[in-house]
Amino acid sequence: xxxxxxxxxxxxxxxxxxxxxxxxxxxxxxxxxxxxxxxxxxxxxxxxxxxxxxxxxxxxxxxxxxxxxxxxxxxxxxxxxxxxxxxxxxxxxxxxxxxxxxxxxxxxxxxxxxxxxxxxxxxxxxxxxxxxxxxxxxxxxxxxxxxxxxxxxxxxxxxxxxxxxxxxxxxxxxxxxxxxxxxxxxxxxxxxxxxxxxxxxxxxxxxxxxxxxxxxxxxxxxx
Length: 223
Known about the structure:
Blueprint: H1 2-41, H2 51-58, H3 82-99, H4 149-207, H5 213-216
Helix pairs in contact: 1-4, 3-4
């Protein structure tokens, strides 16, 4: 039974080391994939993508009150990492709020409103979602779509992709950390298993007492 436990400890250590190496390799591949894909997009931060620059840009605009501004910086820098991608996405949100005067997608009207549309039929961006008050396209005789609304569609798609790259890189980093932990655990199992076996053998030998001359020549008691 003791021998079985020793072999099991060694086997567990080897398996943990193998899983640790695999986790580290997969994590490194994940980080490299994120970095190479971002490089292929050739994204470069605009000059205003600094905390100081964006603060000055939105200063005095009513919609900017209470809006959390980015604290990172990617101005004139290529976006090659997940952290830089997340930072770029934060500035994209501010730029989109600038373009729509702080009105989010959910509050924007679907159509361009006619002149003289009642205030009750206008959305916060001065558009309308009521076809009755929408400007009609003379060619199709259909309501004209609110083009500014599409800015949010594009922004949401791009920032989701950028934030996904950040999440992917964080997961890859976590995988590397887990891999290191598995490696250390594996080596620990091996040390305990091998060290325990050696110690048991040493203790066993120490307990064996050599036969003395007295024990060999013990005389029987006669009657």
